Amino acid sequence: MAGLGTVDRIEPPRIDDSVSLAAEALVRKRRRDRIVAWLQLLPGSAFFFAFFLLPLLGLLAMSFFSLVDFEPVVDFTISNYAEVLTSSVHARLALRTVQAATIVTAIVLLVSFPFAYTLNFVFRRHRQLLFFLVLVSLFGGYIVRIYAWRSILGNQGVINQGLMAFGIVDEPVRELLNSMYAVGASLVNFLVPLGVLPIYAAMQNVSPGIAEAARDLGASRFRTARQIVLPLSMRGVRAAAAFVFIATLGEWVTPRLLGGTEDLLIGNRIEYYFGASLDWPAGAALAITLVVAMGLAAFAIMSLMKRLAR
Amino acid sequence: MAIRRRVIGAVIALFLVAAACGGDEPAPTTAAAEEMSVCEGTTLSFIGLDGEAGEAELEAWREENNVTLETNWPGNWPQFVTAIKVGDVYDLATIAYFQAQRQIEAGLFHPIDTSRLSNWDKMFAGLRENVSLRGADGQVYGVPIAWGDGPYIYHPERVPNPPVSILELAEPEWEGRFTLFDSAIWLFSMLAVALEFDDGVGELTYVTDEQMESIKEEAIKIVRNAAGFTNGYQEATDVIVAGDSDLNINGWEAMLTWAEEQGETLDFDFFVESGGGGWWDGLAIPVTADDIDCAYEYIDLMISDEINAQVGENLVSGVVNEVSAELAGPGAQIYDYDLVRPEVPEVSFRDQSPPEDDAAEEGIASYSDWLETWEEVKAEL
Question: Could you report the predicted ipTM of this complex, rounded to two decimals?
């Protein structure tokens, strides 16, 4: 039929084709979004890979090295782990460290939860200011803060001078400084912001209306916090507990500068291996063991708190 | 303070070099400066403790010979070991008595040919012959430039009756009143003498494994009584000045000067019933050295008469050169130089360290045993 004077008819697009085109566009968009998402992840992942994962893998490799003339050499051995896991010194220090971490975590949570609750439900109008004050406390340097505690708790420090001025004691209380109290006070001071932030973030998802409803129905503020807000913000509490517990497990500077001779923790033992003993493979084995222990501890805390929340 | 010392040191060094160049009979120590230096126009790289590379004392000589000195301190001894082990090039390094044997055994340094040091024979024999300078092969690996006698430092108003034995610090009256370094060497060595396991004379401290158990028990009592550990001489001074401690077991006479600057008067003394000991800091030539000839010349200058006198004064430490002892200022004169004269063996300078692992005989506690026992002491408190 096709002949002179005839024009090819343009077929209108069929519905199937339209759907297919739209689907393809959607697939392309999703692919583009995925690429963008991966690109967004790239800087953080690259940093994490280069400055955490790679060194950790290096540490893991070194933990299986042998030590010859104080030099780690590539000669596979598990003796470093055998030493780490069978040493009575490590057992004692690990127990002391877990005790300290548990106490510090408990205190930080007891301080952080009411603070975050007050911030979110009581002083809502001023919460930006209060939140800023929490952040401000992070501004002071870590070491500066430790030395500040030295001048607060020392024999000629603020507390002792105050106690003597009021006639409560005749001579300075030496036990304030160079003790686990000093270590604990400094760690709590340093870690409270790390406790408040995740709990406060989790509480943002709890509608103030729910808390108000509980109050209207006669629940006290304490009961509202315990039975309504706590279960709903448990994810933040778990994260806070994990942050604080893990941070305390790895501590070695605070016990060295504020603790007494009886207050050194497992982190100080790692410092010893990398320092005085020059036995880096054994130090690496202990550090890796501590990392694994921290992972297990974090998992245990998360599980325990999830169970408690039910 | 350090800047003032360096400036004064530089002025003195400049004056001495100028005087020597202008004299008819130049002093032997400056003869090297007059001759063509093998270091002419080079850069000398040093790794080690601040103030121990002749920064001030040899500034004029470096200018004269167009020598550049690069100083590096990696922050701590393990990093120091690593830096040399990974092959970083350094021509000179600090070698400190308490690390010397470990570092020599770790193969960080070249042996020193003492015949290349014109001032070597002027060194006090107690230092020159000291076993701690030598490796297991008997060769010298370090050249001392300064030394000290390891006193304890205390606050005289708060400690009217200074202790004479380390064992006194285990008594209840000392509870929470003193501090110490987190280090086994001095404490264990003094306990070995106080418990009569070692006579405190001669080289190194030898105790049996069994005796080490007794030392550990006493150490636990003392360390439990301590207020805390201090992390260096400056911190130890600050802690006493702040009133948080009355005494620090590990001392250096320079702490008195630092305390004076803060308006406090401290004093030093010795646990005379627990043996004496001392320390030395020196220079060594790392195996990565680029310019060994220059390193030898520089070391020789550092132990020469006038320069070493300045080193002693600037570091508030004993000088190592017998002639320098007469030239040195008051900072270096507070030391009893009989300690480094072996003809007075009962008080002679000795390294309190234990034997290194491969040098310890069967049944004798080695360096690693001491370190491990110290860790047990801290864990068992």
Answer: 0.71
